[in-house]
Amino acid sequence: MSESEVVVYANPELLAAAAAARLVTRLVDLQAAQGSASLVLTGGSTGIAVLDQLRRSPARDAVDWSRLDLYWGDERFVPADDDERNEKQAREALLDHVPVDPKRVHAMAASDGEFGDDVDAAADAYARVLAAHARPEDHGDVPGFDIMLLGLGGEGHTASVFPESPAVYETERSVVAVRNCPKPPPTRVSLTLPAIRRAHDVWLLTTGEAKADAVALALSGAGEVQLPVAGARGRRRTLWLLDRAAAGKLSHVYQPPTA
Ligand SMILES: O=C1O[C@H](COP(=O)(O)O)[C@@H](O)[C@H](O)[C@H]1O
């Protein structure tokens, strides 16, 4: 697994714009090198702000959206038209505005979808989607995602893997149903930490003082049971993209001047 790298931006707006630019560059490079790319999206304020910035950027047209496989790291198990749904927010922020191939947009089921309110069936179905897209070189049932975007909570959750919850102890399954989440909505579907660690690059995006303790603990060797985000690592790269407030409890990282 890769060591963590940290980049701090002066404010949340700069972080979102710079992460969007970084995403364009990386996706274009990947498509040039291997023909297509895969990207795992996150919910949460910072992840959606990055997609919003991407939509506004003229450089977005450099990406061949038709040759991009899109997945989600977690989903709130609510009806498809619920504003809380990560997929709905991502579509409104970006996906409805770029020519993605619908067959390559791999969303998790909604609670009014084909599995009804059976969240276990929804999780199992997504595990099958991942397995169907894994290649021989991935050595398992999860694709080697090129880039995975993740957010985090102040208590240390990432995707929908919460501290001390059953999901954080999962070692076999790639996707699990999550119930009784401390953060609403309470029922979710999430990739597990072993599935997250199949990604080549993991980018952890967060802003705000409320995340500063979790960031500092994760970067100082906290255990993943108490702080799941500490277990989110990419095989090639683990990149933390923070604003000054989220990085406020880190010493020895470069802090940019206030913009
Ligand atoms: O509920 C969720 O929250 C986290 C973080 O969200 P934020 O708004 O505090 O940045 C996110 O990573 C996750 O995907 C989402 O479902």
Automatic annotation (TrEMBL):
Superkingdom per UniProt: Bacteria
Uppermost EC category: hydrolase
Keyword check for Transmembrane helix: no
Alphabetically ordered keywords of this record: Hydrolase
Catalytic activity: 6-phospho-D-glucono-1,5-lactone + H2O = 6-phospho-D-gluconate + H(+)
Short name of any one Pfam family annotated for the protein: Glucosamine_iso
UniProt keyword Hydrolase present: yes
Gene Ontology MF, one: 6-phosphogluconolactonase activity
Database matches in InterPro entries: 6-phosphogluconolactonase_DevB, 6PGL, Glc/Gal-6P_isomerase, NagB/RpiA_transferase-like
Entry similarity comment: Belongs to the glucosamine/galactosamine-6-phosphate isomerase family. 6-phosphogluconolactonase subfamily.
NCBIfam families on file: pgl (TIGR01198)
Protein name (Swiss-Prot/TrEMBL): 6-phosphogluconolactonase
Organism in which the protein naturally occurs: Amycolatopsis bartoniae
